[in-house]
Design brief:
- By secondary structure, the chain is an alpha/beta fold.
- About 45% of the residues lie in helices and about 15% in strands.
- Helix 1 crosses helix 4.
- The radius of gyration is 18 Å and the shape is globular.
- Pfam families: HAD_2.
- Keywords: Hydrolase.
- This is HAD family hydrolase.
């Protein structure tokens, strides 16, 4: 059993429920309307919600006659607003098993593809900030899309903050596993309800159905 110097966690799908796809689609529709596109092709909505790259965003905006920067500013602002409203209304919540993170002796951090400001809100709103020594999300810019997972950029920044070489990253997507591998650390894939049947083309170091299972693995416990 590896003795880890730190444990890092994804945010959406690990600490809190992931955003609803339709909520993200509506925020994206609103962004298009804000920059003057009232009738948007569904394939463009789907591409953005699925996780658009910089090149894909630029091509999409070119097809719509838009400048990518103001469109993306509107999309990120409205997407974040929709997320905060979902948390405040109770439509999105924190998973019950997050409290087990307190059982870990290692310093912990959060690394997310969500906005840094949204992650900050989540940690404060749910009282999770004391659990984590560092946290990273991406800035609300077009350029930040180049840095999101599976790019290990923010994982490496968190590891530097924690002065850790041996670490475990806990996530719920294939890109989390790939990012951990690129950062040279182990990964744990949590099969929450939304990804229980996911088929991965990469193999995580560990798998579990809950955070409690992962914490037991880190502690070397089988109970």
């Amino acid at each position: 059993m590896t003795e880890y110097e730190a444990v890092l966690f994804d945010n959406d799908g690990i600490l809190v429920a992931p955003p609803a796809a339709e909520t993200q689609r509506e925020a994206t529709r609103a962004a298009f309307r804000e920059v003057g596109v009232a009738d948007i092709d569904e394939q463009y909505l789907n591409a953005i919600v699925a996780g658009v790259t910089v090149d894909e965003l630029e091509a999409l905006c070119n097809a719509c006659g838009l400048d990518p920067e103001p469109f993306w500013e509107a999309r990120e602002r409205l997407d974040e607003r929709s997320q905060l409203e979902a948390f405040e209304s109770g439509a999105r919540g924190c998973y019950d098993d997050v409290a087990c993170i307190t059982d870990l002796s290692q310093p912990c951090g959060v690394v997310s593809n969500n906005h840094h400001s949204t992650v900050a809100f989540v940690l404060e709103f749910f009282g999770l900030r004391p659990l984590f020594a560092t946290y990273y999300g991406r800035e609300k810019t077009v350029e930040s899309l180049r840095l999101k997972k599976p790019n290990p950029h923010y994982l490496e920044r968190a590891l530097a903050d924690l002065d850790a070489e041996s670490a475990l990253y806990v996530g719920d997507s294939e890109s989390d596993v790939i990012a951990a591998d690129r950062a040279g650390i182990d990964s744990a894939f949590v099969r929450r309800a939304h990804c229980r049947d996911a088929s991965l083309s990469v193999t995580p170091t560990y798998e579990g159905a809950t955070l409690r299972e992962i914490v037991r693995i880190v502690d070397g416990r089988s109970d």
